[in-house]
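Example for tutorial group B:
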């Protein structure tokens, strides 16, 4: 009589379900990890998009000043800009046309009050650069509106450069918008004598 060969078969059957059970458990764990990672990635993208990060478009939005068309800077009306009034400037203009003086009050427009306060630390250098610009002009150059606008543009570049922001490159027909914290230069008074 043969001994019960059924016992080895039962052992073989028991080993097979144990291996497939472990394999099934590993597959389930891997799938759960993939789902958790995917959900985390989607949540991160949504969070970045809500904060203005733009998710996948971040490469396109990285250089907004270079890609933006030239034109007036957009201002958020809910958050009005701050204005920093500089002490009056009185300079001798270039003497090619006789002794002429310029007295002006310059105002810098910045995006917020915190930035306006931090400008005070850079004010000696900003005033120095503006003083050099003003004293290097001819009276005929600053007598016209176009000359004053050009002077304001040069002052804007110099103020931003003093803060560590290089001036924007000019396009063929228009000037690029400012890239630094100083958004505009305004003249409260402008007297040539």
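The residue assignment follows.
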């Amino acid at each position: 009589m043969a001994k019960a060969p059924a016992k080895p078969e039962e052992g073989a059957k028991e080993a097979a379900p144990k291996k497939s059970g472990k394999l099934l458990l590993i597959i389930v764990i891997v799938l759960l990890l993939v789902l958790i990672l995917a959900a985390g990635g989607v949540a991160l993208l949504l969070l970045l998009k809500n904060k203005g990060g733009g998710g996948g478009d971040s490469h396109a939005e990285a250089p907004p000043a270079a890609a933006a068309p030239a034109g007036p800077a957009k201002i958020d009306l809910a958050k009005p800009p701050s204005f920093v009034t500089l002490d009056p400037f009185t300079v001798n203009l270039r003497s090619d046309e006789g002794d002429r003086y310029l007295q002006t009050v310059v105002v810098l427009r910045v995006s917020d009050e915190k930035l306006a306060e931090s400008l005070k630390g850079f004010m000696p250098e900003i005033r120095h650069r503006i003083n050099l610009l003003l004293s290097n002009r001819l009276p005929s150059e600053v007598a016209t509106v176009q000359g004053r606008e050009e002077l304001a543009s040069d002052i804007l570049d110099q103020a931003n450069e003093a803060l560590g922001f290089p001036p924007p490159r000019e396009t063929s027909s228009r000037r690029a918008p400012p890239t630094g914290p100083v958004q505009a230069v305004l003249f409260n008074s402008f007297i040539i004598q």
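Confidence is low (pLDDT under 50) at residues 53-70. Compare this with the pattern of hydrophobic and polar residues in the output above.
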